[in-house]
Amino acid sequence: MAHNPDAREALMIGTRTDGSTVRRPLSPHLQVYDMLQMSSLTSIMHRITGSIWSVGMIFFVWWLSAAAAGPEAYATVQWFFGGFIGLIMLFGLSAVVWYHTLNGVRHLVWDAGYGYDIPTTYRTGWATAIATAVMTVVTWIVAIIAWAS
Amino acid sequence: MSEHIPAVNRQTSMQSGLGRVRGSGSARNGTHHWWMQRVTSIALLPLTIWLVFSLAVHAGDPWEVMAEWIGRPFNAVLLIVLIGIGFHHTEAGLQVVIEDYIRPERRAMVAGLVIKAICLVLGLLSALAVVRLAV
Ligand code: HEM
Ligand code: HEM
């Protein structure tokens, strides 16, 4: 038998009724689920937005350290985020943060034991999507008003 | 007495008595990781909403205004709390993603440690930046 460096592989071995071994199927992954279902779509979106915002935190750190470093460093950050790429990124990040935060509330409600049935899951899923759009737009209206005044 | 025990508890358990009493599962830290992810989520909920709107309200403001804002005691404390809890949540969250997708185990472990190191350094860096503007 080939050396296998992953101990988790041991969990992947199952046996058929005749005793012969079989590789067990994997639990949920992207290829087996219809990703247009509310359940799997909102699930993977939580993971994707969590990961994107983790990377986005680097910009938060950059902003804070530049502010601490002084006016010149801060001007560079402002130049970056005021430009086309910077603004697109900020817009994307704001939507990502709102989704992860609002869907995070959905997760916490599930953890408390509520809202597991399919109709409720669809309703809260749509509510999260709509609230994400609304809060992202509200955030940018606030930003544009602040910027213009 | 025994008739009140639910049927599920009477099933044969493959776990050792000691293992069942400790109740910590195969990862040996029980539900700690899972629970901390919930605790940090609850704390981050108001903090994140506060941060997003605070930043939006100050869109385009010059350095003088922002540096003063970051340095105000109330804002500085909330920022430091957000940084601490935020990076803890980020590190624990990414850990789970890594464990799911990176193989073999050795590489997942190294990636987890790298993430921990990055989160620690970035967290300390941003906390120091806030402290510098606050004192
Ligand atoms: C691609 C989309 C999905 C991703 C990325 C995903 C990811 C995850 C993650 C990270 C966990 C947490 C495991 C932990 O407790 O540490 C989890 C748990 C779980 N997921 Fe999913 N999941 C997805 C889709 C689904 C779907 C479609 C179902 C149902 C058909 C499902 C059923 C479950 C169940 C039952 C658990 C709890 C398992 C346990 O307690 O050990 N997941 N999933
Ligand atoms: C500092 C900002 C944040 C970052 C970088 C972040 C990142 C992440 C990451 C990477 C994960 C792992 C995703 C997965 O395992 O699929 C995660 C999970 C989670 N996040 Fe966040 N997050 C942040 C803020 C929040 C906020 C404000 C909430 C709001 C309530 C929240 C709620 C959750 C919950 C409930 C989970 C666990 C989901 C599950 O059980 O699979 N997060 N986060």
UniProtKB/TrEMBL annotation, chain A:
It comes from the Bacteria. It is found in: Membrane. GO terms for molecular function: electron transfer activity; metal ion binding. Heme binds at residue 100. GO terms for cellular component: membrane. Its cofactor is heme. The chain crosses the membrane at residues 44-65, 77-99, 126-148. CDD domains: SQR_TypeC_SdhC. Belongs to the cytochrome b560 family. Part of an enzyme complex containing four subunits: a flavoprotein, an iron-sulfur protein, plus two membrane-anchoring proteins, SdhC and SdhD. The complex can form homotrimers. This is Succinate dehydrogenase cytochrome b556 subunit. It comes from Roseomonas indoligenes. The gene is sdhC.
From TrEMBL, chain B:
Keywords: Electron transport, Heme, Iron, Membrane, Metal-binding, Transmembrane, Transmembrane helix, Transport, Tricarboxylic acid cycle. It is found in: Membrane. The gene is sdhD. Pathway: Carbohydrate metabolism; tricarboxylic acid cycle. One of its GO terms (biological process) is tricarboxylic acid cycle. The chain crosses the membrane at residues 39-57, 69-87, 108-131. Residues 1-26 are annotated as: Disordered. One of its GO terms (cellular component) is membrane. The keyword Transmembrane applies. It comes from Roseomonas indoligenes. InterPro entries: SQR/QFR_C/D (IPR034804), Succ_DH_anchor (IPR014312), SuccDH_FuR_B_TM-su (IPR000701). It comes from the Bacteria. Part of an enzyme complex containing four subunits: a flavoprotein, an iron-sulfur protein, plus two membrane-anchoring proteins, SdhC and SdhD. This is Succinate dehydrogenase hydrophobic membrane anchor subunit. One of its GO terms (molecular function) is metal ion binding. Its cofactor is heme. Pfam families: Sdh_cyt (PF01127). The keyword GTP-binding does not apply.
